[in-house]
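Researcher: Go.
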Amino acid sequence: MTGGPVRVLVADDKENMRKLLAKILADGYAVEEAEDGARALSLVATRPYDVVVTDIRMPGADGFELLGAVKARAPDTEVVMMTGYATIADAVRAMRMGAFDYLEKPFDPDAALAVVARAAEHKRLADAARRDDASGGEPSSFHNLVGRSARMRAVYGLLDKAAGLDITVLLLGETGTGKELAARAIHYHSARRERRFVPVNCGALPAELVESELFGHARGAFTGAAAAKAGLFEEAQGGSLFLDEVGELPLPAQVKLNRALQEREIRRVGDTQPLKVDVRVIAATHRDLREEVRAGRFREDLFYRLHVFPVTLPPLRERAEDVPLLAQHFLAKHARALRRELAGGFDPEALRRLAGYPWPGNVRELENAVERAVAVSSGDRVRVADLPAEVAGAAPAGPEPADLAKLPYKEAVAEARDRTSREYLVALLAEFGGNVTRAAERAGMERESLHRLLRRYGLRSDDFK
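Model: Structure:
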């Protein structure tokens, strides 16, 4: 958000609600309106906004889909959800997905203005932080993916290239590494961003209904098919279809999927006429598909049809330097969702336990652990006792701060070279709450020298404040 009025999009299918919000925000805000979810998706795909205020229930696309589109394309844009009393649970769910806040209808105009003002200020601060981050030459996020390790920066580059190429993408990696976030980033950064992103978990589809769900069915195609039904390929027409856990598809569905990719047409179950489709398929799996092919569980022709542009998301244990950044990101997110004030962030020892845990469930497990810690914490910060037992009992990353951070820097390097050097810096920043001046004094070096070391090891002082 730079100079000029704050840009706000109001999405609601009720005209009186749109006009009310436009009147409330008339002073100092540039308000645009969308009469349904489809129009809102088109606007956020082509225009920048500081704040989006959206109803949850809308035709065309609901508030959750709009929230996902906004956060994938422009993560710093804040989203405020509007809800009736009966859907408060949905609003809380939306905040866990990244919404800034929610307004319960009917709302007080002053309260609505205050929420939008807070959201706009949060966006302004995020913009400033992003500009500072960009000046350091190392991106800390790509859409809703977070991390500045070398592994993640390489992934960002591949995802950016994939977005510009209208080809099939295969996302590989363990469960919980962020494959759906990567798929959304590709879609909302591509030329198809104005059309729908349709996700489906192939492993959750009943085997007998897989083909009907993907390709649709004709009336009377099977018992209970009282009317014709469009499948997910048709729903995604012009946009992207995300096939999560594609390795779980039964072999008959794999045959039809391969044909759909090859011929760019589908045939509804029980129908004789093919339908042309214009859909970009993004598939994902945690399985080794080459091994699945050798075992006869996955078709070789489909494997090569999907394996056009593979991108592997690394497990969290292979980018442990991103754990503090991710933990702070999730703390801020869930503190907002749970209406908690945690100005103190993480206790340094709690942060070291998080960094020392191997995270077999990857980023998803880390987020769940932080959400739990936020929920059970008391006071103004998260402590070791607030962490799940298996995390709290993990060996801390590196030597104790009391031992390591008090050594002169050269001695610490001599003790254990690069890995300990990084752990030394982590402990040093944790001890001084990210205060680079005080940390440099303790280390016996110039402030700029410490900044260079922080950049070398992918650390930011702000992550420890």
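Model: Residues 399-420 have pLDDT under 50 and may be disordered.
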